[in-house]
Amino acid sequence: MRRGPAGAPALLVAGTTSDAGKSVLVTGICRWLARQGVKVAPFKAQNMSLNSVVTADGAEIGRAQAAQAAAAGVEPTAAMNPVLLKPGSDRRSQVVVRGRPVGEADALGYRDFKDRLRTVAAESLAELRTEYDAVICEGAGSPAEINLRPGDIANMGLARTADLPVLVVGDIDRGGVFAAMHGTLALLEPADQALIAGFVVNKFRGAPELLEPGLDMLRRLTGRPVHGVLPWLEGRSIDVEDSLALTAERAPVRAPVQGRTLRVAVVHTPRISNFTDIDALAVEPGVDLRFASSPQEVDDADLVVLPGTRATVADLAWVRERGLDAAVTARAEQGRPVLGICGGYQMLARRIHDEVESGAGAVPGLGLLPTAVTFAADKTLGRPVGSAYGHPVEGYEIHHGHSVLDDGADDGAEPFLDGWRRGAVWGTTWHGALENDAFRRAFLADVARCAGRDFAPAPDTDFAAERTARLDALGDLVEQHMDTAALLRLLEEGAPDGLPVIPPAGVPDA
User: Fold this and answer.
1) Domain range annotation of the chain
2) 261-455: CATH class
3) Quick check: pTM over 0.85?
4) Which end of the chain is more exposed for a tag (fewer CB within 10 A), N or C?
């Protein structure tokens, strides 16, 4: 592709709302371009997410950008998501810059970071534009969040700085998509509007001819084309950003096998993180997977999973408030399987000492593993390898808490993936372990044995192939339902000149 003074061509995918389909569309475009032989990279200047991953060089970035890199067929890097915000409460987030935490901030304190972060974002995008043939950028939230526009580094602030053409995607399944698209454009100042090159309708179900009158009116009112209508596609979800995505659409596909079902309940804590750990369970035929927030919802499960969390102590308090602690403890005492991953593993300890994440000091854990957890100021980021059940296992680590056997006592515990197992209770700091097919099958077979269930994992389930198929489906979506010639023109030429301003914008030009 033709390179300009700024380097490789790039465009920004913005959305009318959060979860409108930005991540999915960027993933699909990256996949389609890669098929055309284009060396393409994803980019998200600022991401607020509790779903993250560790790159090969030890940087922490959002999992959505890692999935987009996989779609592009390239290795993810810190430059693809230079700013990551990890909420620890409703008001405070850990700020991760170029893959490393630099501090905690609330919404007001975050303003102090803005000038630095704007520079980091611009430099990261420029870096990618020197290394790749094209860069597909993803916005954050909506560009029409006009209260945040002065400090914006991810939407129109980025587009203006880098002179990027912008596509606005809207979710028609929510309703009101035409009003959302027109309103998004109208709320922007004229210089921002000049970069909005067109729209994409997402999640359409029905007869296309019924939609056409609305598309025509949107074209007349805005002077901008609709570059694609993407149909509803089951299982389109990728490694998304936050637990808002744990909706019916993302609910794992259940594949019950008569007489061989294994029921798995995942405790849905308020600050659940890296819930993509369970995606590999969802592809197993016969695994019936659900999220749970009450004792009744875990009572009949064959396996209860305590997943990762950004706020171990606070989420442990939430578990106790709802009586889930007693339900999980009773299960363990009966020899019924429990798995803790990262923060969930920390909850299983006898005691927790946290002066870092929560500042709570000494807190009793659930006592289901003979471990003690101490939180350190430095975050552990890594991609460990090991083995379990005689099979190789790869994973990744993202945590402040460090677990050791309490006072050196083993209490019948045995090592398990850099964590511990005692009876039918397993704990590990490793995310992604269940994506290893042979290990996952052996683990589930052991769970079934402990639970007394007549269940055997399928011998040929391939999680990597399943993920590849999802990425291919998104590439197909772009190829079959978008104006790809127009997409290439936007990359090569930028936003067309003379796009009309929609009055009244109501926002003074910056």
Assistant:
1) 10-238+468-493, 261-455
2) alpha beta
3) yes
4) C
